[in-house]
Design brief:
The complex is a heterodimer of chains A (about 375) and B (about 130). By secondary structure, chain A is of the alpha+beta class. Chain A contains eight helices and 19 strands. Chain A is globular and about 60 Å long. Chain B has one domain: OB fold (Dihydrolipoamide Acetyltransferase, E2P). The chains are: A alpha+beta (about 375), B alpha+beta (about 130).
Chain lengths: ~375, ~130
């Protein structure tokens, strides 16, 4: 495994290495894929609390009198309908309707929007937004100013509340508050990529190692575990959350990806709107749908999907689901065939293995009062 | 991790222990760590012929699937059936109870091409 190109590192890199995490190249970043056991980390998040370094994610800030107009123009969801302190999942699209990236848009104030974007896409996203900026607004590449730590799981709130005066219970799902964590200024968002309750915390990079350690200490009695990208992937897949480069990319539109809810055609002009309006009128040709393996085997990313023996689609993500004890996945099928209960075959190492399309999300957490 | 002296190793992270013309084959501790939580092991049937350096089956973890390359050539005489029900044994005891197959070697001299414990240790030390 020669390393010809220097991998990028988060402010927590040295801690991961010292804690014995297994590190991998993730889109050019040297990231922890697992600490102890992917499955144990997965269960810690479902049953208690887990800690993720997601500092590789990018941040972009949009400011100025027309910040909302720019945010609305470059995204599919209605940034203009956000309240201050609210966040939304959204898409950055090309004119043809394919994804530049999937992102989180946070409204900090009437003239300030804070975007969290995928690590491998951050420079591309920044250029895309800047090129589209015909408004009285400034676009700032802010990734160097933020580390990001995700505290996820049913005991995330009880862990984090020990380190912050912010009343966490008053932050609704997909809302955020600016306050402090361990005495350091922090943006605390009730968001996540696991299907559990939890928070994503944005802090200055220099503060991140101390906060990471204090969170591990605060969650110790709950059995908190540091978690790697391996568990992050199985958790998000069970919750059917899209991963850029898999479910979505430049050739996939939100309608195809079953993300029509993030498209607000009625909000006014935005990049990709014309292509999406046309697709909505004529219908999509392919559609993302969940499946479960029925035969012995795991359908993995990129494997061919067959219908009645003929190639018809491909797997975008597939894995054993630790919370379900089943082998699950997502795949693209011709829209007319993407219905529940359809028998499919996944080509697993050159052998067709039976599978069946199923309802998603595969896992949904029990709602608490 | 110290690698047992009585095994010989491949650069693809398999091992073989020889007694007479019988070779017992497994994957190394390094391999199980790289794979993580193992969920499936696919092994050949008794009587199957395998060839040094060729795939004899696969081992699959939550994260990934990986070929098992045979360290020696010969005929399968025994398969560790317990791994079908308990593949996680490979994470716990890869050099012992979680051996994969036993083979009647057709060319026992092939073992000489494999790495000693010290060489393998140096190899995985350098790789990671």
């Amino acid at each position: 495994m020669g390393q010809s190109v220097a991998l990028r590192r988060t402010p927590l890199h040295a801690l991961h290495v010292s804690m014995g995490a297994k590190m991998v190249d993730f889109g050019g970043w040297d990231m922890p894929v697992q600490y102890s056991s992917l499955v144990e980390e997965h269960h810690a998040v479902r049953k208690a609390v887990g800690l993720f370094d997601v500092s590789h994610m990018g941040e972009i800030e949009i400011r100025g009198p027309e910040a909302v107009r720019l945010a609305d123009y470059v995204t599919t969801n209605a940034a203009s309908r956000l309240h201050i302190g609210q966040a939304q999942y959204s898409g950055l699209l090309y004119e043809h309707g394919g994804f530049v990236d999937d992102i989180l848009v946070h409204k900090v104030s009437d003239d300030h929007f804070f975007l969290c974007v995928n690590a491998a896409n951050q420079e591309k996203d920044f250029e895309h937004i800047r090129a589209a900026n015909k408004f009285d607004a400034q676009v700032e590449f802010a990734s160097d100013r933020y580390a990001q730590i995700a505290v996820q799981g049913p005991l995330a709130l009880r862990t984090l509340e020990r380190l912050t005066p912010v009343e966490l219970g008053s932050i609704g799902y997909y809302w955020f508050k600016d306050g402090t964590v361990s005495g350091a200024p922090a943006r605390i968002a009730r968001t996540g990529y696991t299907g559990e309750d939890g928070f994503e915390i944005y802090v200055a990079p220099a503060e991140a190692p101390r906060i990471w350690n204090e969170l591990l200490e605060a969650g110790r009695e709950f059995g908190i575990k540091p978690c790697g990208l391996g568990a992050r992937n199985t958790l998000r897949l069970e919750a059917k959350m899209a991963l850029y480069g898999h479910e979505i990319h430049a050739s996939i539109t939100p309608y195809e990806a079953d993300l029509g809810w993030m498209v607000k055609l009625d909000k006014g002009e935005f990049i990709g709107r014309a292509a999406l309006a046309k697709q909505k009128e004529h219908g999509v040709r392919r559609k993302l749908i969940g499946f479960e393996m029925r035969g012995r085997g795991i359908g993995r990313d990129g494997y061919e999907v067959r219908l009645d023996g003929l190639a018809a689609g491909w797997v975008t993500s597939g894995s054993p689901a630790p919370s379900l004890n089943r082998n699950i996945g997502l795949c693209y099928l011709p829209a007319g065939e993407a219905r529940l209960g359809r028998a499919i075959q996944v080509m697993v190492r050159c052998q067709p293995v039976d599978a069946e399309t199923v309802n998603t999300p595969f896992y949904k957490r029990a709602k608490t009062a | 991790m110290s690698y047992p002296e009585d095994l010989r190793y491949t650069k693809e992270h398999e091992w073989v222990r020889t007694e007479g013309d019988i070779g017992t084959i497994g994957i190394t501790d390094h391999a199980q760590k790289e794979l993580g939580d193992i969920v499936y092991v696919d092994l050949p049937k008794i009587g199957a012929l395998i060839e040094q350096g060729k795939s004899l089956g696969s081992v699959e973890s939550v994260k990934a699937v990986s070929d098992i390359y045979s360290p020696v050539s010969g005929e399968i005489v025994e398969v560790n059936e317990s791994l079908a029900q308990a593949p996680e044994k490979l994470n716990q005891d890869p050099h012992g109870a979680a051996w994969l197959v036993k083979v009647r070697m057709s060319a026992p001299d092939e073992v000489k091409k494999l790495l000693s414990a010290a060489d393998y240790q140096a190899y995985v030390g350098a790789e990671s």
